[in-house]
Design brief:
By secondary structure, the protein is α+β, with helices and mostly antiparallel strands. It contains three helices and six strands. The chain is about 30% helix and about 35% strand. Strand 5 and strand 6 form a beta hairpin. The longest helix has 14 residues. It starts with a helix and ends with a strand.
Length: about 130
């Protein structure tokens, strides 16, 4: 097996990215989820939307995204305020996710933790 074939197999195996959204309104979280659903296959149905929960505890909305078959995002999306997104997955998969989010938002990397085969990246999404 050559290097390209090995990378392709690794990409197939490492195609999922866990995404956690916190510190924003449910409407902004929904906008990010809508972009993710438009660009990728996710584990969330379109009817599964972020909701406010009773109490004053922090809310984290999560989704798992399969980046192996990306689709084109239609264009910029407006957020009410910047959104912090934590993503975790293989290097290739996280990079693919970040590239496609940049079709809809201004994306800044604000932190990374690198592992042997995966990385965790904190992104800041803003309206373009």
């Amino acid at each position: 097996m050559n290097r390209t074939q090995a990378q392709t197999e690794e990409n197939r195996d490492g195609r999922e990215v866990a995404v956690a959204i916190t510190g924003c309104s449910k409407d902004d979280a929904r906008m990010v989820f809508d972009v993710l659903r438009a660009a990728f296959t996710t584990d969330r149905a379109s009817a599964d939307v972020p909701r406010d929960l009773a109490g004053k505890r922090p809310t984290v909305w999560t989704v798992t995204v399969d980046v192996s078959e990306a689709r084109v995002v239609s264009g910029p999306v407006t957020l009410g305020e910047p959104v912090t997104v934590d993503v975790q997955g293989g290097y290739w998969a996280v990079d693919e996710l970040r590239k496609h989010l940049a079709d809809a938002f201004t994306v800044r990397v604000v932190g990374t933790v690198s592992g042997d085969q995966e990385e965790e990246v904190r992104l800041r999404l803003e309206s373009r």
